[in-house]
Automatic annotation (TrEMBL), chain A:
<dbReference type="InterPro" id="IPR013324">
    <property type="entry name" value="RNA_pol_sigma_r3/r4-like"/>
</dbReference>
<dbReference type="Pfam" id="PF13384">
    <property type="entry name" value="HTH_23"/>
</dbReference>
<protein>
    <submittedName>
        <fullName>HTH domain-containing protein</fullName>
    </submittedName>
</protein>
Automatic annotation (TrEMBL), chain B:
<dbReference type="Pfam" id="PF02861">
    <property type="entry name" value="Clp_N"/>
</dbReference>
<dbReference type="InterPro" id="IPR004176">
    <property type="entry name" value="Clp_R_N"/>
</dbReference>
<keyword id="KW-0677">Repeat</keyword>
<dbReference type="InterPro" id="IPR036628">
    <property type="entry name" value="Clp_N_dom_sf"/>
</dbReference>
<protein>
    <submittedName>
        <fullName>Peptidase</fullName>
    </submittedName>
</protein>
<feature type="domain" description="Clp R">
    <location>
        <begin position="2"/>
        <end position="184"/>
    </location>
</feature>
């Protein structure tokens, strides 16, 4: 990862492209982590209501997003 | 749409389905399509990939695709962007895998028997096929060949485009190489 860090530093943190790319990457990472955690909770018998409460969203929202698995 | 596919393009699509066993993803996505393209010989895309030096680096491409899949489809450029925020993507992957098993962060979770063959083509793969059709129409071609699949894979940011870029191949390189090959055939 040091190579990656160097690349980011070379690009300069004032460049909007670097910042926007980081936000987009962070959003993708967030989606992946959410999917992992929801799968894990379902596998452990959590209800959609319980998962939604922890995520701070509605039961419908979390079921619509992850329910087809 | 499939009736317009050349024999080469059909072979790539069939090969991509076979690749799911090797990549362990269970569905066809960009990595499977790219690996299937690299398995072809004597086709327009195969010649372009050969001329661009990708064929001889197939193992390296396959490794990079597998690594990206393990990172949840995030490219090395994504990892660099996150590193700029002080986020170590490899560390996150390692911790998630520690808690949830190897491959947990990949789009469809750890490899397993569930939902096999239920959805052989991911939305990602379908969008590549649709893009290939649009590219073919845009170039006035009346067929969809494996060269259109290769252009579609490189035309937009994604796992395949990112890995090919890391191997020094961009959409522009592919289009130029295909154009030169077409010129050689015509003359």
């Amino acid at each position: 990862m040091t190579e990656a860090t160097d690349l980011a530093e070379q690009a300069g943190d004032r460049d909007p492209r670097v910042g926007l790319r980081a936000v987009a990457a962070l959003r993708r990472l967030l989606e992946q982590l959410e999917a992992v955690q929801v799968r894990s909770a379902r596998a452990q018998g959590w209800s959609w209501q319980e998962i939604a409460a922890e995520l701070g969203v509605s039961r419908q929202a979390v079921h619509k997003k992850h329910g087809r698995r | 749409m499939f009736e317009k596919f050349t024999a080469d393009a059909r072979a790539v699509v069939r090969g991509a389905v076979e690749q799911t066993d090797r990549t362990g993803s269970g569905t066809v996505g960009e990595p499977e399509l790219l690996l299937a393209l690299l398995d072809r010989a004597d086709s327009p895309a195969a010649e372009a990939l050969g001329a661009l030096g990708v064929h001889e680096r197939r193992e390296s491409v396959a490794d990079a695709l597998a690594a990206a899949r393990r990172r949840g489809g995030m490219s090395t450029a994504d990892a660099a962007a996150l590193a700029g925020l002080g986020i170590d993507l490899d560390e996150i992957v390692a911790r998630v895998e520690q808690a949830h098993g190897v491959g947990a962060l990949s789009a469809d979770g750890p490899a397993g028997p569930r939902k096999r063959a239920r959805r052989p083509f991911s939305a990602e793969a379908k969008s590549v096929l649709e893009r290939a059709l649009r590219i073919a129409v845009g170039r006035g071609d009346r067929y969809i060949g494996d060269e259109h699949l290769l252009m579609a894979l490189t035309a937009r940011p994604g796992p395949a485009a990112a890995v090919l870029a890391d191997h020094g191949v961009t959409y522009g390189d592919v289009v130029r190489e295909l154009g030169e090959a077409r010129g050689r055939r015509a003359s």
